[in-house]
Specification:
heterodimer; A: Ferritin; 0% strand; B: alpha/beta; Dimethylsulfoxide Reductase, domain 2; Barwin-like endoglucanases; seven-stranded mixed beta sheet; six-stranded antiparallel beta sheet; 29 strands; 29% helix; globular
C-alpha cells in the first residue's frame, strides 16, 4: 500500500511549515503581528507533526514525534538582524516573499491532508479521518492568514 | 440642596429604586467659588467629554467664562447626575498653558507663527508627498474626543480626498474590540443594550469592567438598584478588588490573559446544564454546534487550573447567569486590552445570544466604550472603517459611498482593511509613512513600548503634525502644532455607548487663535483643493450644522441612521438614541428586538475575521454560513499570552485607569480637585507579594519588563497575587523631562509590549511579564486613591484617605428641587 508515503510526506510538509513559520517570525521581528502570529501558527503545525507520528506506527511508519527544532544562536541572529534593518524599506519586499512562501507551503500541506482524508475514507479508518478533521481546518486557517497578510501588506510595499 | 465632597464620595448620595421603576432624578452642580446660580449669565447645553458615559449637562457661563456645570435632569442617561471628572474637569479649559497660536519647528525649536504659515507648511508637505509617493505616504491618527461632524469631515478628507487608508483613532486603544466583537456576533457595530436595562435586569454581569471608576454615573444607577427593593445579582470578573467586586455576588479574579478559558468554562456550564433558549438559537442564530463542540474542552476543573479560579466559583457564576431572567452583560478594558480580546468579548455576546436575552428590557449587552465620542470615531469612518458602517469588502457599499461623496469609487481605498495605528507606526518606522497628522491624542504616552514610539515620532524623515489644546508630550515632538478649540468652545454632536446622541454647544470663545477642529480640517481640504468628480469642493459644508446634515445623508438607510435627528430636536430635551429616522422618529431604545439583526450579507458592515489569526472571512464564505443574516455564534480556543512570566520576570503587569484622571491627564491633571485626588503614579501589589518581596505601603519600587522600567510608590491593595497594576495616565508634561523620562520612567507604557489582538488590532496592555524591586522606604502611604480599586488592603491612617480639597464641595438636589429647571 502506498499510504505510508502520504503519511511520510505530510509529516515532512508539516515539519517544513512549522519551521518556516518560525524562521519568518524571527526574520520579521519588527513586524510584530507577523512575529507573534507566525509563532502561534507554527505551534499548530508542530502539534500536527506529533499527532501524525503518534498514528504512524499503526501503518508501519516510524516518524519522529519531535518537530524539527530551532538552533538558538541562529534565532537570536535573525532577530537582531531584523531589528537592524527594520528601518529600511527593502524589508517589505522580503516580507512579501516570505508570506507568499508560507501561503504556498500551507496550500501544499492542505493538499496532503486531502489525500490523507481520501485514503482514510477508502480504508474506513475513523482514527485517521478524525486526525484529518482536527488538523486540516487549522491548515486552512494558516493559509488564509498568510494570504490575508499578503493582501494587507502588498499595497504599501509595492507602491510606496 | 445638600453639599457633598464628591472626591471623597465619587458616587454621591443614594436614591434607591426597584426593578422596573424609573431611576429618580438627582441634580448635581458645581460652580466656581463665589459664583451663585443666580449670577450665571447663561446655561449652555452639552454632555460629558471626560469619560464615555454621555452624561448630559449644562455649562454655566459668566462674562464669557465657564464657571461651572450642572447635570441635566431631563436626560435619559444621567437623570441629572454628574461624575467627579464632570464636576471639576471643566476648569482645564481656562488653563494658562493652553495653546493659543500655531507653532512650527525652526532650527530644531517650536516657534509661534500665524495660521497661514502653519497651514501652508502642512499643505506643501502633503502635496509634495502625494506627487512623489502618493497617498500611502500620509496617515491620520485621531481621537475619541472630537465631535461627529469633525470625524466625518476627517474621514471624508482622508478616504475621499487624499485617498489613503491610513486612518485610525485612539479608539483603537480603548474600544476597537467593542466594535469588532459586535461585528463578529451581529455582522455590524451598534450596541444591543440600553442603559435602561439596568432598571430591569435581575443579573448584571460585568466582565473586565470597573464601571465604578470608568463610568461613575452608570455605577451610581447600579448602586441605586442595589440599594432598592429586589436588587440584581452582580457577577464581576476582574483581577483587582474593585468597588464592583466588593458589591458582587460572585467575584472571579482570573489570572491575566486567560479570559477566553474562563468564558468557555462559564459557557460549558450554561450549555451542559441546558440553560439555553433552543427556540431562539434555532430561529435566530448560526454556529451553535461549533460552540457546543469547543466548550466541551473546558469543564470547570480544567478552567480552574488555567485561570487560577476555584471551579466552584465558575459553576456558581454560571448558575446565576444561567438562571437570570433578565441578563445585562457589560464588557470593558479588562477584556479588550487583554490577551485574546475579541475572542473573549465575543463569548460574552454568545451568552446573551444562546440565552435569547437580547432586545428586551433588562436583556442587553453593553460592549462599553472608553472615550466619550468613540462611537462617532467608529461610525463616521475616522477609525479607518468606511463611513456609516459600510462594508469595505462589499463593492456595492463602496459605490454607494462614492455616490454620497460624488467621487469615483476607485478613489476610495478599499483593497485591504484600514491601517490600524500600530501598523501605521510600523510604516512610519520603515519610512513609508512620511507624514502623520495626530489630532486630539497623545501617542507618546498612550501607545505601548514608549521608547520605540518616541524613536519613531522623533525621526527627521517623519513630518509630524499635532492638533491639540495643550503642548502634550506628542506635540513637543511635532513639526507643526495647530492649536484647537475644545468642548464648550465649539459646537457639535457626539454619541455614547448606548447610541444616545447629544448636542454640545459652544459656550465661550476659544483662547487666542485656537480654532475648532472642524474649521481646521475644512481649511486643509480647501487649501489642498480637494474636489469631487464634477470639480466642486469635496467638503461641501462650512459649519457644524451643515456638517451634521451632510453626515445624516451619509447615514441614511444604514444601521446608524441619523436622518430623524436635527440640532433643533436635540436642543432642550434629552439625548436621542439612533437609529432615528422616519420609522423611528423618537429614536430606538433597543435594537435586535425579535431576533432581527443587521447581518445580512448585502447589508452587514463586515464579513468578520478569524478570531485567532485575524484573517478576514471571504465574502462567499460568509454568504454560505449566514445567508439570512442571523446572529453569528463564534467559538474560540484559549491561546496563552505571548509573554508569560519567567524566572527573570515572575509577575504579570496590568495597566489601567483611576476614577479621578482621564487618558494622559491633559485636562484632569489641570483640574485642582482631580489632580489632588490622584497626583502621581503608583504601583499596586497584593499583601502576600508585598510580604515575599519585603515591600511596605508607600515604599518606592522599581517595576521592570524587558522593555523598560518605571519607579512608583507602592500601594498594597486587594489585587490578585502575582499581579502588578500601574495606572497609565502619568506621562512627562508636568515633569522636567517634558516629553520623556528624566531619570526614572513614570509612564506605564514604558513597560508594555508591542502586541495586539489579531482581530480587533487593539494593543494588549494587560499581559506583560514583570518584576518589582524595592528601592527605598517611603515617608507615608502612596499617592493612590483609597476610594477605588486602589483602596488599601490593610490598616491605613485615616488622615491619608482620599478626600477633596476645600473647593471640592458640590451641590446635590433631589428630584423635586432638580425638576425646577
Amino acid at each position: 500500500m502506498k499510504f505510508g508515503l502520504v503519511l511520510k510526506e505530510l509529516h515532512r510538509s508539516e515539519n517544513e511549515l512549522a519551521h518556516h513559520l518560525l524562521v519568518i517570525s524571527e526574520r520579521h521581528k519588527v513586524d510584530h503581528e507577523i512575529y507573534h502570529l507566525a509563532r502561534d501558527l507554527s505551534r499548530w503545525s508542530q502539534q500536527h507533526v506529533r499527532d501524525i507520528a503518534a498514528l504512524a506506527g499503526n501503518y508501519g511508519e516510524n516518524l519522529d514525534p519531535e518537530p524539527r527544532s530551532e538552533a538558538g544562536l541562529m534565532e537570536t541572529l535573525r532577530e537582531k538582524g531584523s531589528e537592524m534593518v527594520g528601518r529600511r524599506p527593502e524589508t517589505g519586499m522580503l516580507l512579501l516573499r516570505d508570506l507568499r512562501e508560507v501561503y504556498l507551503q500551507a496550500c501544499g500541506v492542505s493538499a496532503d491532508w486531502e489525500l490523507l482524508a481520501q485514503a482514510a475514507q477508502g480504508m474506513k479508518d475513523q482514527d485517521l479521518l478524525g486526525l484529518a478533521e482536527k488538523c486540516h481546518p487549522q491548515t486552512i486557517r494558516q493559509m488564509k492568514w498568510a494570504n490575508g497578510k499578503l493582501k494587507e501588506s502588498a499595497t504599501q510595499v509595492l507602491v510606496s | 440642596m445638600a453639599q457633598i465632597d464628591r472626591i471623597a464620595e465619587p458616587w454621591g448620595t443614594r436614591t434607591p429604586y426597584g426593578a422596573g421603576n424609573e431611576w429618580p432624578v438627582r441634580v448635581d452642580t458645581h460652580l466656581a467659588e463665589g459664583v451663585a446660580p443666580e449670577d450665571v449669565d447663561a446655561w449652555v447645553q452639552t454632555a460629558s467629554l471626560l469619560h464615555s458615559n454621555g452624561d448630559a449637562m449644562d455649562i454655566a457661563v459668566k462674562d464669557n467664562r465657564i464657571v461651572g456645570v450642572r447635570g441635566r435632569a431631563v436626560d435619559r442617561v444621567n437623570h441629572g447626575r454628574l461624575g467627579p471628572k464632570d464636576l471639576y474637569g471643566w476648569q482645564a479649559n481656562a488653563s494658562p498653558d493652553r495653546l493659543t497660536k500655531p507653532l512650527i519647528r525652526e532650527g530644531g525649536k517650536l516657534v509661534e507663527t500665524d495660521w497661514d504659515t502653519a497651514m501652508q507648511r502642512v499643505v506643501d508637505r502633503s502635496k509634495a508627498l502625494l506627487a512623489e509617493q502618493g497617498p500611502s505616504a500620509i496617515g491620520f491618527y485621531t481621537t475619541g474626543q472630537l465631535f461627529a461632524e469633525e470625524y466625518y469631515t476627517l474621514g471624508t478628507i482622508a478616504h475621499g480626498g487624499i485617498g489613503t487608508n491610513h486612518v485610525d483613532g485612539n479608539t483603537r486603544l480603548c474600544t476597537a474590540t467593542a466594535a469588532e466583537a459586535l461585528k463578529e456576533s451581529f455582522g455590524c457595530d451598534g450596541q444591543p443594550g440600553s442603559y435602561t436595562d439596568v432598571d430591569h435586569a435581575d443579573v448584571i454581569a460585568l466582565y473586565g469592567h470597573n464601571v465604578a471608576e470608568t463610568q461613575t454615573v452608570l455605577w451610581t444607577r447600579m448602586l441605586d438598584r442595589l440599594a432598592g427593593p429586589n436588587p440584581p445579582s452582580i457577577i464581576c470578573v476582574d483581577p483587582r478588588l474593585t468597588p464592583v467586586a466588593k458589591a458582587a455576588t460572585v467575584h472571579l479574579a482570573p489570572r491575566p490573559g486567560t479570559n477566553v478559558a474562563l468564558m468557555n468554562g462559564i459557557l460549558h456550564e450554561i450549555i451542559s446544564n441546558g440553560w439555553v433558549d433552543q427556540e431562539y438559537i434555532q430561529a435566530h442564530t448560526v454556529g451553535f454546534s461549533e460552540l457546543e463542540k469547543e466548550v466541551k474542552n473546558y469543564p470547570p476543573a480544567v478552567v480552574a487550573e488555567i485561570c487560577g479560579v476555584p471551579a466552584e466559583q465558575i459553576s456558581e457564576a454560571a448558575s446565576i447567569i444561567g438562571h437570570a431572567k433578565r441578563l445585562l452583560s457589560t464588557v470593558l478594558q479588562g477584556f479588550y486590552q487583554s490577551n485574546q480580546g475579541t475572542a473573549a468579548a465575543v463569548q460574552v455576546n454568545n451568552i446573551n445570544i444562546i440565552r435569547g436575552m437580547l432586545g428586551k428590557p433588562g436583556c442587553g449587552i453593553l460592549q462599553m466604550n472608553g472615550q466619550p465620542t468613540a462611537e462617532n470615531t467608529r461610525e463616521c469612518g475616522a477609525d479607518g472603517d468606511l463611513a456609516a458602517f459600510r462594508n469595505w469588502s462589499n463593492d456595492a457599499h463602496v459605490k454607494d459611498l462614492a455616490r454620497v461623496w460624488n467621487i469615483d469609487p476607485m478613489s476610495i481605498p478599499h483593497y485591504s482593511p484600514p491601517t490600524h495605528v500600530m501598523q501605521m507606526m510600523r510604516y512610519a518606522e520603515d519610512g513609508s509613512i512620511r507624514m502623520l497628522w495626530v489630532s486630539g491624542t497623545n501617542p507618546a504616552v498612550s501607545l505601548p513600548e514608549l521608547a520605540r514610539v518616541r524613536s519613531i515620532l522623533k525621526q527627521e524623515r517623519l513630518f509630524l503634525v499635532v492638533q491639540d489644546i495643550f503642548l502634550s508630550e506628542t506635540a513637543q515632538l511635532a513639526d507643526v502644532v495647530l492649536p484647537a478649540a475644545t468642548w464648550g468652545e465649539k459646537t457639535g454632536t457626539f454619541t455614547n455607548v448606548d447610541r444616545t446622541v447629544h448636542l454640545s454647544e459652544k459656550a465661550v470663545d476659544p483662547p487666542g487663535e485656537a480654532r475648532p477642529d472642524l474649521d481646521i480640517f475644512i481649511d486643509y481640504a480647501h487649501r489642498m483643493g480637494l474636489k469631487d468628480k464634477d470639480g466642486q469642493p469635496l467638503i461641501k459644508w462650512h459649519d457644524p450644522e451643515s456638517a451634521f446634515e451632510a453626515w445624516k445623508e451619509c447615514s441614511r438607510g444604514r444601521p446608524c441612521d441619523y436622518t430623524g435627528i436635527t440640532y433643533g430636536k436635540l436642543r432642550g430635551g434629552s439625548g436621542i438614541q439612533w437609529p432615528c429616522n422616519e420609522e423611528n422618529p423618537e429614536g430606538t431604545e433597543r435594537i435586535y428586538a425579535d431576533g432581527k439583526f443587521w447581518a445580512h450579507p448585502e447589508y452587514c458592515e463586515t464579513y468578520g475575521r478569524d478570531l485567532i489569526t485575524g484573517a478576514p472571512v471571504d465574502p462567499s464564505e460568509y454568504k454560505a454560513l449566514n445567508p439570512e443574516g442571523k446572529a453569528i455564534i463564534k467559538a474560540a480556543e484559549y491561546v496563552p499570552p505571548h509573554e508569560l512570566p519567567s524566572q527573570d520576570f515572575p509577575l504579570q503587569l496590568i495597566t489601567g485607569r483611576t476614577l479621578y484622571q482621564f487618558h494622559t491627564r491633559t485636562k484632569t491633571g489641570r483640574a485642582p480637585e482631580l489632580q489632588a485626588a490622584a497626583p502621581d503614579v503608583w504601583v499596586e501589589l497584593s499583601a502576600d507579594d508585598a510580604g515575599s518581596y519585603g515591600i511596605a505601603e508607600g515604599d518606592l519600587a522599581e517595576v521592570e519588563t524587558p522593555r523598560g522600567s518605571v519607579r512608583a510608590r507602592v500601594r498594597i491593595s486587594g489585587i490578585r497575587n502575582g499581579v502588578l497594576f500601574l495606572p497609565f495616565h502619568y506621562g512627562y508634561w508636568d515633569t522636567d523631562g517634558g516629553h520623556q523620562p528624566d531619570g526614572a520612567g513614570r509612564a506605564a507604557n514604558e513597560l508594555t509590549i508591542t502586541d495586539w489582538d489579531a482581530a480587533s488590532k487593539q494593543p494588549i496592555f494587560k499581559t506583560a511579564a514583570a518584576r518589582i524591586t524595592r528601592i527605598s522606604a517611603g515617608d507615608g502611604p502612596s499617592p493612590a486613591p483609597t476610594t477605588t480599586a486602589s483602596a488599601p488592603a490593610g490598616g491605613f491612617p485615616d488622615e491619608a484617605r482620599t478626600k477633596g480639597i476645600t473647593s471640592a464641595l458640590a451641590d446635590e438636589a433631589g428630584g423635586t428641587e432638580g425638576g425646577a429647571r
